[in-house]
């Protein structure tokens, strides 16, 4: 068994470009509009009811993220057609991207699963990942799981990000200790 290496907190977020449902190119980790940070959420795909619930819950915190300068995007390995069909169950206004390539999943250090059957989906897919990329393009917060049952509590996450973004707190990127030193 061989899993991909994990990204380090504080390291540069890799340059990965995907497409949104309207075929607009979206470069992950590059905030849009007035935002200076970006939250990149990787989800399993339309076959996952927990992903649908999580994405819809993200919509509930989107305005709080925007208020502290954090843009929100989500991506999966689904095809454009699968995303189009999934949107019927999604009530979100942030960009959803499709076609996350296997190589990008590996680069992000995500756990990758093989479908249990053709009824589940027709391609390998990434297990959940969440990355908050700061204004320098570095990973401020990282959360990677090997299954859909383990995800950050969104209320705790957004409250923590509000605290981190407050300049009076001067909160550094955590988890940067190197075992080689």
Q: How would you characterize the overall build of this protein?
A:
Pfam families: AhpC-TSA. This protein has helices spanning 49-67, 80-86, 102-107, 154-165, and strands at residues 16-20, 25-28, 37-42, 70-75, 96-98, 112-113, 125-126, 129-133, 139-144. The strands form two sheets. The chain has a seven-stranded mixed sheet with strand order 2-1-5-4-3-8-9. Strands 6-7 form a two-stranded antiparallel sheet. Helices cover 24% and strands 22% of the residues. It contains four helices and nine strands, in the order βββαβαβαββββα. It is an alpha+beta fold. It has one domain (16-162): Glutaredoxin, CATH 3.40.30.10.
Which terms summarize this structure?
two-stranded antiparallel ribbon, 24% helix, alpha+beta, globular, 181 residues, Glutaredoxin, seven-stranded mixed beta sheet
Element layout with pairings:
Blueprint lengths: L15 E5 L4 E4 L8 E6 L6 H19 L2 E6 L4 H7 L9 E3 L3 H6 L4 E2 L11 E2 L2 E5 L5 E6 L9 H12 L16
Parallel strand pairs: 3-4, 4-5
Antiparallel strand pairs: 1-2, 1-5, 3-8, 6-7, 8-9
Helix pairs in contact: 1-4
Number of strands: 9
Radius of gyration: 16 Å
What's the pLDDT, averaged over the residues? 92
Tell me the CATH architecture.
Answer: 3-Layer(aba) Sandwich
Q: Show unreliable segments.
A: none
Portion in beta strands: 15-25%
Can you say what the CATH homologous superfamily is? Glutaredoxin
Keywords: Oxidoreductase, Peroxidase
Domain Thioredoxin: 7-166
GO molecular function: peroxidase activity
InterPro entries: AhpC/TSA, Thioredoxin-like_sf, Thioredoxin_domain
């Amino acid at each position: 068994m061989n899993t991909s290496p994990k990204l380090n907190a504080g390291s540069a977020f890799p340059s990965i470009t995907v497409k949104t449902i309207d075929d607009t190119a979206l470069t992950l980790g590059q905030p849009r509009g007035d935002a200076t940070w970006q939250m990149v959420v990787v989800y399993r795909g339309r076959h996952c009811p927990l992903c649908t619930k999580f994405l819809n819950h993200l919509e509930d915190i989107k305005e709080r993220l925007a208020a502290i300068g954090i843009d929100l995007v989500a991506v999966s390995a689904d095809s454009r057609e699968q995303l189009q069909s999934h949107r019927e169950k999604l009530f979100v206004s942030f960009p959803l991207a499709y076609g996350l390539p296997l190589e990008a999943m590996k680069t992000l250090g995500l756990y990758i699963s093989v479908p249990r059957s053709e009824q589940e989906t027709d391609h390998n897919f990434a297990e959940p990942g969440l990355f908050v990329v700061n204004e320098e393009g570095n990973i401020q917060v990282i959360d990677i799981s090997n299954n859909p049952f383990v995800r950050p509590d969104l209320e705790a996450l957004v409250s923590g990000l509000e605290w981190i973004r407050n300049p009076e707190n001067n909160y550094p990127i955590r988890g940067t200790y190197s075992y080689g030193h």
